[in-house]
Write a structure and sequence with these properties.
Number of domains of chain B: 2
CATH class of chain A: Mainly Alpha
Helix content of chain B: 40-55%
Structural class of chain A: mainly alpha
Strand order of the largest sheet of chain A: 1-2
Strand order of the largest sheet of chain B: 7-6-8-9-10-14-15
CATH class of the largest domain in chain B: Alpha Beta
Number of strands of chain B: 15
Radius of gyration of chain B: 24 Å
Order of helices and strands of chain B: HEHEHEHEHEHEHEHEHEHEHHHEEEEE
Radius of gyration of chain A: 19 Å
Number of domains of chain A: 1
Shape of chain B: elongated
CATH architecture of the largest domain in chain B: 3-Layer(aba) Sandwich
Distance between the termini of chain A: 46 Å
Number of strands of chain A: 2
Oligomer: heterodimer
Number of helices of chain B: 13
CATH superfamily of the largest domain in chain B: Response regulator
CATH topology of chain A: ABC transporter involved in vitamin B12 uptake, BtuC
Distance between the termini of chain B: 70 Å
Helix content of chain A: over 70%
Largest sheet of chain B: 7 strands, mixed
Order of helices and strands of chain A: HHHHEHHHHEHHH
Strand content of chain B: 15-25%
Largest sheet of chain A: 2 strands, antiparallel
Structural class of chain B: alpha/beta
Shape of chain A: globular
Amino acid sequence: MDYFLELFLGGLTRGSIYALIALGYTMVYGIIELINFAHGEIYMIGAFTGLIVAGLLTMYGFPGVSILAIAVVCAVIWAAAYGYTIEKVAYKPLRGAQRLSPLISAIGMSIFLQNYVMLAQTSDFLPFPELIPHFGFMESMGSIMSSSELVIVLATISVCVALTLFIKFTKLGKAMRATAQNRKMAMLVGINVDMVISATFVIGSSLAAVGGVLIASHIGQINYYIGFIAGIKAFTAAVLGGIGSIPGAMLGALVLGLTEAFATGYVSSDYEDVFAFMLLVLILIFRPSGIMGKEKAQKV
Amino acid sequence: MKFKLSLIALCLAMVAMLAACGGEEKKAEEAAPAEKAAAEQPAAKLVLGVAGAHSGDLASYGLPSVNAAKLAAAKINAAGGVNGAMVEVVAQDDQCKPEQATNAATKMLSDGVKIVLGHICSGATKAALPIYLEGKIVVMSPSATNPPLTQSGDYPNFFRTIAPDDAQAALEVDFAKSIGLKKVAIIHDKGDYGKGFATFCKQFVDADADIEAVLFEGVTPGAVDYSAVVQKIKGSGADGVIFGGYHPEASKIVTGMRKKGLEIPFLSDDGVKDDTFIKVAGKYAEGVYATGPKDFSSNPIYQEAVAAHKAEFGSDPGPFFPEAYSAALALLNAVKVAGSTDYDAVMNALHNSYVDTAVGKIKFDAKGDAEGVGFSVYQVQDGKYAEVK
């Protein structure tokens, strides 16, 4: 039973990590039906910003928790700026083009950002400081769940709740939902669609940056390539849950994380990915638009 | 459509012609040294055959051994040769291809060569060995690491100055036993190198009654975390972990283990014996063991050979140069000790008399592997790798 609990909590952490990244994929897809492949790189840039800021703050002798807070805030701002710029540079000019063009542009952006960070920083792995403090009350549970895992899970839960409330109850959230339903109609009723799309990119990128800093601090290392695998897995989670749906992305990420953890724990980590993608295939066979996805006529 | 077809046909014809040209050039190259060898072989010469990839994709692995043989020959000749005979180096190209390797071996045999330095690739070596064995030619490779080449016992005429692929794993398991481990978890990164190493470790562990493998698993490189694997190691009751792979995964696993309070020894391989591992894993790297090649950079013969290479060829030597230089010295020394190129006498000398080489003072064990070359165990102590065994 202990073993089950340990695996469950490990899977929960992994699912939370995927969820923070998957939200960005699903929001962007919901609004403009574009798979933003550069999203994983935004996550990576968030982590790098966190590393640089944390390094500076440590040099100036800031206390532990404030470093984490400031690093997260800086990473969010910087990554949001990147998200905003990417949308303006790589996707907006192609908005009227056929669907494949922005997709290729997204892949190009992803490769560009990876190489840019590799050249500007380094291709080596870099150590990431442990910014998340060790809580005294977690000592007794240390073998089951570490403080950093707890922080990641709690952060994801609060981000998800806040995002849901934001989409449900604010004016911008309403505008987003309207744009997602029908972009032309939203324009006709006076919604500034360009602004809404930019806001979506900014929010998605911010979430990825939060994830980047927390996860890098949990794992303790980063390099320019971390966004790729994390991005692919998060994208899988988003598809699993039904791309375009925010609760779907959360659920999909959780299901994916738990499946991987249990596959490793009870079968073998050799088959971790086999089980994860078998699950994806099975779900897509029975529910082609994902667990929470809405059935609708596809334009592809 | 017709135009396209004829275009394709034209392309194919051109490719075929190019391939044909390549083949002819090669043959011409091969023929040249053979003729030379046949023409200049008076009795006072000792021919040292060098076989390996001297052209093609893998030439960069083979050419350093030719240079090494030339430098070793020059050194010995300057000191009066081997029992009065001047050493002459004759090269045969096999491009690391088994079929070319048998050709090269046949040429060596028909030219009356008695000692051969080579081949470079394990596959080519294996293909050529039966011919050498039949012709009673002693062969020594600086780079063929495939374990069965020596361990099968099929080729008593084969020696090597490099440790076989499984030497590192053998050392790792020996060391695990020496620090008192009884139940080990063997983890790898599913890659050729990591999984190969882990598989060898598992074979040695399974063959030994004092130690058992309680877990054998691969992890996906680059995954966001390895907490499930860490839990599994914990659940397996292992008292030590052997990891085959590279440092990014190793540092993630070690960090995860230590954070979960799992303080059992962590042993790994050459892919982890890297300063980046210590930099990234930080305080969690402390106490980690890793095997790595023995350091022979302070060996005077090695330094002298590198200096000679720079003087002669104007560049730093390539891969397997120290091993090839050592093999050339070992072969020539064996002929000197034996007093002739008689097969049994040379074999006896290789097995029984020590020789000073660039990789240390060596002789060869009953199967043909050099004793005293290979790997050491290092441990991270105060943020540095220190040799412990």
